[in-house]
Amino acid sequence: MQITSVTELLEQYFLRRMLADKSRQNYEMVVRVFTRDVADNIDELDEETLLAWRDSVLKRATGITFNNYLRHLRAIFNYGLKRQWVDSNPFSIIEPAPRQSRKPKTLTSSQYNKAIAFVEKSGTSHPSWFWVAVIEFIATTGARGRQVVELQWRDIDFDRATIRFRTEGSKTQREWFIPLPDSIGETLYQWYFSMGVYKNPALLRTQVFNVTLHSKRFFGREMTINQLNDFFSRLSRNIGFSIGCRRLRHTLATRLANSTSNSEGYLFALRDLLGHTDIRTTQIYVGGNVERIRKMMNDSGICSSYSKRVKFYGVDMRQ
Length: 319
Prior knowledge:
Blueprint: H1 6-16, H2 21-37, H3 47-60, H4 63-82, H5 109-121, H6 128-141, H7 145-150, E1 156-157, E2 162-165, E3 176-179, H8 182-194, H9 225-239, H10 245-257, H11 266-274, H12 279-282, H13 290-300, H14 302-306
Antiparallel strand pairs: 1-2, 2-3
Helix pairs in contact: 1-2, 2-4, 5-6, 5-9, 6-10, 10-11, 11-13
């Protein structure tokens, strides 16, 4: 079989590869941008054309963005070359943009406290106790947004005080365990009993964070990543600065990496906490076990001084 278009090559790639929904969306976005900017016909993709495209992308976006495009396009063409669908990979000779080293954007303690206070007192984030818990969970665990909505009660072991991040919510398609921080652990333990999860095994496979159970303002049977992102978008507009899953995650990682009490070995524990597969990814913030990570989190003071304890006021909060 000979494939003549980038779009068809992507379709065949999807047909044979088992990819997460997020990964598929990324590939679709890259191909959509490329075919819009350049061409869909593979015969039109020579070196000069691709170099001109690289220059045009770098004029409107960062090198990180271009390199992301390049990685995805190289991947589908390498696969096509392996299957003998195409004669060559024109992207293999295109050099990536220089790697830019930027410090992750973080929140100050005062910004964090301002966000918590606004959610609790403004009356615009309903139910406030739920959203405060969401913020604290991300701030103390470094969970990604997808991991928040994928977290189920079966993933929390209160006896061992651990959280399991399953492959369904993992950016790297892997599973790992982290400690359950004391502050948010107490809140979730109250929810576990108040919602009757402890006596109903069927509830173990339900979401821990599901705003649709507690407010009529949200529709659906489960909370979605879009509902989570929309909450942070509204909150950011109201408080005058950006806050979201990524910024909370970066804030935790930066505080931990720069804690004066942390030794060199903590970098590897931090890697395990964040679920990185490459230590170089973790190093932008400056193989452990659960207890070492727990010591790192407790030593940093994240659970006590940085976060605020949340109380659960009841399950049926519909108004």
